[in-house]
Amino acid sequence: MATSKARLARGRLAGEIFRPQRAWLAARLPGVLVCVTIGLATTFLSDHYGGPVMLYALLLGMAFHFLSQEGRCVAGVDFAARTILRFGVALLGARITAGQVMQLGLGPVLTVIAGVVLTIAAGRLLARLLGLERELGLLTGGAVAICGASAAMALAAVMPRSGHAERDLILTVVGVTTLSTIAMVTYPLLVTSLELDHAAAGVFLGGTIHDVAQVVGAGYIISPETGDLSTVVKLMRVAMLVPAVLAFSLLFARSASGGQTGRLPMLPGFLVAFVLLVLANSLGLIPAAVTGAASDLSRWCLVTAIAALGIKTSLEKLAVVGWKPVALMVGETLFLAALVLTAVLLLGVGG
Asked: Where are the bilayer-spanning segments (predicted)?
């Protein structure tokens, strides 16, 4: 009898201890499950019928916008759009090693660095010329320059949460995903018509196409050698996410403080995790099976986060932005393509 009472008391104590955790989980689980379900559906569509899974997840998520207004799914959708997003970006680090970067040689590395820096600067300038906000120019420039939708979400995570922040992120994801798909089809035709060799073609494709999946698709259309090199060049661009996010953190922290310099802001946790995973992978501490699992999990997290962003998006708000953001992203894409093509043709990068 005494033993039974003691067990009952311990059970009640454990229930009291874990009650906040259960309440936290119960509040977020419905929304997260909705986002995961949308991710599963869009992955099925992409695998069986082709097309970019990110764009499918975004569009299908928009059909469930009503879930973001009120009800049990709101907290989970917000959690997926922010926390799961950052976790997915951090896991991208497991795909990169310092050895992959060193294999490229100096020319492609300098081309990638110049492409990222100058494209972000061009985005800022084009935004000013078009009368758009500075934040949109920087966000789209970073997305075009680095790794498409993944970069857009990572950069947006450290930018100010203004009234237009989510709308700008959705515009950027839709724009760069669409342009990346177009590039996957047209850029192989361009490098073939220019009669670029495998190395030069790999540098051009990996240095210009926005999303990793589209780079892989375009590269292996040309040849296995081009596909391998274009993937490594693309991963070098993904690695540029670290200094870009850090620079954005410093820029907007300074803007928020009225331009005064002071203590450096703390690094975002997901950026620290990204760097640690790159270092661990470079030192061979992560087995190949774990790297593959981390890559798959990262992809699922990003698709889930994109579905959440779609749910939070109002088509009515998107309809009022006009043609200027589209012109901005097209201009940035053409600028990056011209820059890398000049390096390949005139400077012999990759040749």
From this structure: 21-43, 49-67, 104-126, 138-157, 169-190, 235-253, 265-285, 327-349
